[in-house]
Amino acid sequence: MHVGLSCFFQNPDRKLTDREVWRQEVALAEAAEPMGFDSIWSAEHHFTDYTMCPSVTQFLTYMAGRTTRAGLGSMVVVLPWHEPVRVAEEIALLDHLSNGRVIFGMGRGLGRVEFNGFRLEMGESRERFVEYAEAVMGALETGTMESDGKHLRQPPTDIRPKPFKSFRGRTYAASVSPQSAEIMARLGIGILIIAQKPWEKTLEELENYRELYRQHNDGEEAPKPIIASFVAVHEDREKAREMYENYIVGYCRSALKHYEFHNEGLADIPGYEYYGALARNIHKHGIDTFVRFLADLQVWGTPDEVVDGVIANVERAGCGGFLAALSYGGMPYDIARENQRLFAERVLPRLKAHDTGVEIGAAPPLDVAAE
């Protein structure tokens, strides 16, 4: 199984300077390849303490120079916040710099504070995501971007340096709504599962996407998803439980605050109706109940328990890879470093030995490379 490290750059309550957070998180990222992780990832977020990585491609470019073999993954680049042709250029350039190690994750965004900061209409995000994804994927496959959509009118424009390797099989979208599942299937985009929904809902959406993928690709099966989880591991189960209580629950509370899962007004924003229903459910059962629900979707315990928990989730969703977030929720650096060390020594080898039948990030060369 492909196992990656996800870096989050959180600074809850601003107990550290942003500079200290970045120095510590980069040190953990630099240790990933020597420890045996297959890839290094980060998520794009702006303007708050929730996650301070405003440019995933810039962070991954630095990591490209600090590594030789690890994949470089975005979880995710939020397409509606960007000029699509610039996204295609930056991803193509990063792929050249890293000798083809990019794993491209994309999404449409959920944080209202971020849409407001960019002066963008959140209700247009679904339409923009679909148009931008089609244009970016076309550009990465052909070397030319063009679009005649409602939100994107792009005359044929060459991407230089030209992509040299296909992104089919190494591009993922963070969850796929029923409205966008068809185009994701048609474009050959896989699914990145970031656990926030009940498993039965996630599996239902996955099966719908897989059926659409078969329909649009002559019966070919969809790429196996990648799943990301926050992980707390300790030899002492009670210590692991303390990590769960202090940091996993703490992270989940910060996610609720950032995304406003409890805000029923999200139902009034086109494309976010699901979250309005979620908010009503939170009001019915209470914020603490929802935070615990999110926390219980993550993985914690002794090394044996973490191995079993990860493999159970991978198997139930038919995943091909796993991403572990090991520093989050205000976790002190010494605890995060030990969490990563123990995961790498006692969990990582056993996960990598679990055969999922796929190689994440593998893709054939493109004909445009000959130009």
Annotation keywords:
globular; 371 residues; 47% helix; two-stranded antiparallel ribbon; TIM Barrel
Topology:
Blueprint: E1 2-7, H1 18-35, E2 39-42, H2 56-66, E3 71-74, E4 77-78, H3 84-97, E5 102-107, H4 112-117, H5 125-142, E6 144-148, E7 153-158, E8 171-174, H6 178-187, E9 190-194, H7 199-216, E10 226-233, H8 237-259, H9 273-285, H10 287-296, E11 299-301, H11 303-317, E12 321-325, H12 333-352
Parallel strand pairs: 1-2, 1-12, 2-3, 3-5, 4-5, 5-8, 8-9, 9-10, 10-11, 10-12
Antiparallel strand pairs: 6-7
Helix pairs in contact: 1-12, 2-3, 3-5, 5-6, 6-7, 8-10, 11-12
Describe this protein's structure.
With 371 residues, this protein is an alpha/beta fold. The protein has a single domain (2-360), classed as TIM Barrel, CATH 3.20.20.30. It is built from 12 helices and 12 strands. The strands form 2 sheets. The protein has an 8-stranded parallel barrel with strand order 1-2-3-5-8-9-10-12, surrounded by 6 helices. Strands 6-7 form a two-stranded antiparallel ribbon. The protein is globular, with a radius of gyration of 20 Å.
Précis, in short:
The chain is an alpha/beta fold.
Distance between the first and last residues' Cα: 35 Å
**Element order: H for helix, E for strand:** EHEHEEHEHHEEEHEHEHHHEHEH
Q: Which regions have little confidence, pLDDT < 50, spanning 5+ residues? A: none
Largest sheet: 8 strands, parallel, barrel
Tally of strands: 12
